[in-house]
Amino acid sequence: MTEITAPVSRFETVAAALRSLGGQARPVEIADEVRRLFPGSYTGNLLQSVRGRIQECSSDSHHWKKKRDLFYSVHGIGGGVWGLRDMDPLNPVNRDGFSDSVESYMAFEGAATLRTHLRRERSKSLVNRFKKQLRTLACSVCDFDFGKTYGELGHGFIEAHHKVPVSELEPGAATRIEDLAAVCSNCHRMLHRSGTLSIEDLRCRLL
């Protein structure tokens, strides 16, 4: 059985339990599987909550909320066995569980995640000196000028690209103003995306 991580909402809890049970089960079996997969204290009646979530997310139920259509009644309403639609080969639906194929896809985002990583230090003073000595703030690749396009909002804005990636520098290596290039945000992303293109190489790729 594949590892199941903690769900982001209650209907996903029920779906995870049903998937673990093979795609079809009775509500009491689903509730027991929820307890097994996601141990912890549950407030209220878990079995009742499981039944309610299934009915809200099934077009076979009179209590369907007419949004997600995740579950179906295997033997018809009153039969007591519920199935997971995305595991039913005879009744396929969209993987996102929406009943309407043209309804906007929805994903769960915004959860706070703590990540630890190494960050290569860049010299802000060097970048400031570099920008001060520029004769123009237009991109050295495509000539885009933030000030001309966005007015006061874009005045004085340009990004500094390290011709030799900071990730390739030895700790304590010296960077000169000549090692930087003025680029717009788009060209900067393309330079880093390629990993190997120079300013001149990217300029030659412009259509």
From TrEMBL:
Pfam annotation, one family: HNH
Name of the molecule in the record: HNH domain-containing protein
A Gene Ontology molecular function term of the record: nucleic acid binding
Record-annotated HNH domain positions: 139-193
